[in-house]
Amino acid sequence: MNILEVKGLHKSFGDRQVLSGCSLKVGEGRIIGLLGPSGAGKSTLLRCIAGLLRPEWGTIRLRGEEIRPKDRPRIAYLADHTLLPGGLYVRDACAYYLDLFPTADRERVWREVERHHIPWQRRVRDLSRGEAEQLELLLLLQREAELYLLDEPLGGVDPVTRREILRELMDSMDGTRSILLSTHLVHDMEPVLDEAVFLRHGAVALHAPAEEIRAVHGCSVEEHYLHVFGKEGTV
Ligand SMILES: Nc1ncnc2c1ncn2[C@@H]1O[C@H](COP(=O)(O)OP(=O)(O)OP(=O)(O)O)[C@@H](O)[C@H]1O
């Protein structure tokens, strides 16, 4: 069964229509890359699914059911900016997070922060961008959710650490949870993507398994992306 089904989503800000009939399905155990140029509506779509924005039209279903407030913890959302209070020390920020999301695995949080060498004694606002991104992502991944929405994760993380985290992310996939992530780092993310969604002007221009894109077009997902969006070409 699909974890998520989005159908005919419309969202405008004033007279600017950002999502224009956006439809998408997310199956179980999949990592799906949401790709598209700046302003295509990727963050807006993720925020609608996370329940932070209300679309004017369309439906969003979780395992076939309309999402009720009590279902919200089943979706974990990572924003494109930090939500942890900057004035807190990392140790206290983790405790704060665990209070907010009690389903997170407490032991694993402490272990992972240690393992990733994120300095406990530093304030969140004094972390480097990459350290803050790592901290927020590893906190999010310790939550027990079915769908993880990641808005441009790991953009500020160095390439070696990024690769390591992506490897861990793949290893953590147990067939029950799914990840929908928006990114401009198409080349770096491609190895972990099961599927790619190309979003253009707030609608899905292409949704296919990464393997199929490579087989049909004879090039990588990144190359196909550059072809499609480079010249406003065809999918
Ligand atoms: N709260 C808002 N009020 C007004 N306009 C908004 C708001 N949020 C987003 N927009 C506009 O909607 C459009 C889509 O924004 P969105 O952030 O969804 O794009 P994106 O595909 O995630 O872009 P990027 O890749 O640059 O992050 C943009 O033109 C943006 O200015």
Please explain how this structure is put together:
The chain is of the alpha/beta class and 235 residues long. The chain is 33% helix and 26% strand. The chain has helices at 42-49, 90-100, 106-115, 129-141, 159-171, 186-189, 210-217, 221-230, and strands at residues 4-13, 16-26, 31-35, 57-62, 65-66, 75-78, 147-151, 178-182, 195-200, 203-209. A hairpin with a 2-residue loop joins β1 and β2 (16-26). The chain starts with a strand and ends in a 5-residue tail after the last helix. The model has no long low-confidence stretch (mean pLDDT 93). The structure holds adenosine-5'-triphosphate. Adenosine-5'-triphosphate binds next to α1. This is ABC transporter ATP-binding protein. GO terms for molecular function: ATP binding. InterPro entries: AAA+_ATPase, ABC_transporter-like_ATP-bd, ABC_Transporter_VariousFunc, P-loop_NTPase.
